[in-house]
Amino acid sequence: MTDKKPPQFYRQRFLLALLSVFGKKLTKTDFQKYLFLYQKEYQQENQTYFFVPYKYGPFSFQSYADLRRLEEIGFIQRSEILELKDDYDYTNYLKENDQTVLAQFYHDYKNLKGNDLIRYVYIRYPYYASKSLIADKILGNVSSVVKNQDETSCLFSLGYEGITIDQYLDKILFHNIKMVVDVRKNPVSMKYGFSGKTLKNSLQELNIEYCHLPELGIDSQERQNLSSLEDYRILFDSYEKNTLVAQKKSLSALNNLYCSKKRIALTCFEKDYRFCHRSKITDWLKKEYGIKAWHL
Asked: Which residue ranges form the domains of the chain, and what is each CATH number?
């Protein structure tokens, strides 16, 4: 019996259990593929990890951060191989039903590994092979890879409220967005993946540009005590009359970004754009330049 305190989050305990059933060590690539298949096929109604198309197929940035944390607190060691540091059966960390389902998953997929595992995932879920660097090698027929090649000019807007970093990034990729324009005053978030530097790095890993325009943001103190539609109306009226009027240079620069990049997304926190100042930015761009926005 291990004397270590279990990881804080249940999802992290599941990562340890997944390593346990597959012999306590896996390559990073195989681990991501097994995690992906389990989430997609055995946990559809209650996914804890989500994925984006990446260099070797489906990848979860959240799981990568969780694995780093598990290394920090002494459960695993990471290199090209992910390996448990002791012989404890970490499936004991799981609920009884999850233990049963994981055992069935292992039975179904234990003989599929390496390139065969990658090929299986690519064929079954071709969208997730769309950014792969090895699709030609694995499939021999890149026409089976699903890609969004829409280059039509479009202004998007989206918030990250209620979704994970992987769900957020997947929306960006799915709509073939070339640049994310962050219109938060202070790009800081307690939620993993959404602070400015981390978000920028994740986007760059996916060959998507990041631009921060803090001058188009709203000071956090102005957003206190917003409890009614009238409160929001007053806030946004003030924002239009003061901030936007004073930031015509930045708004012109934003229009130039739209013209050059063609597919850009304004981003902030709120899920519902009507409760976010980005709606006022898109209204202004429509009025001044005739640009219509698609709110994701």
From this structure: 10-144 (no CATH), 154-295 (3.90.190)
